[in-house]
Design goal:
With 115 residues, this protein is α+β, with helices and mostly antiparallel strands. It has two helices and five strands; from the N terminus they run αβββαββ. It has a single domain, classed as HIT-like (HIT family, subunit A, 2-Layer Sandwich). A hairpin with a 7-residue loop joins strand 2 and strand 3. The chain binds guanosine-5'-monophosphate and zinc ion. Guanosine-5'-monophosphate (5GP) binds next to strand 2.
Amino acid sequence: MQDPNCLFCKIVKGEIPSNKVFENKDILAFSDVNPQAPVHILIIPKEHIPTIADISEAQAGLAGQLVLTAKQIAAEQGLESGFRLVFNCQKDAGQEVFHVHLHLLGGRKFSWPPG
Ligand code: 5GP
Ligand code: ZN
């Protein structure tokens, strides 16, 4: 199911252009329009799921695919020295787009704790 008003559903449908890095029948990965690191890629399910808090047991495989896709892209992007994966979930975490997306960030050092 898709939400016609959702930005990332529009990217999945090609109504909004994106710089695609990977695609299969369930998953799409594309460059973030406002990169926070030299490599900043968003990995999303094609299905509209608003937040990580909405992921069901039945979608465990899909959640795993997001992580495995991130790992694969990190290797392709040459991020051998490390990378960061982030799911911002709901408003206190700063989630702005309510369609699940995994941030893959790399190409620089990251501090901890995050802001
Ligand atoms: P959030 O804060 O929800 O975790 O992250 C949303 C991300 O989507 C942000 O990093 C933002 O730069 C990115 N973003 C917002 N609109 C667009 C867009 O139209 N295209 C792309 N490629 N990225 C977007
Ligand atoms: Zn959506």
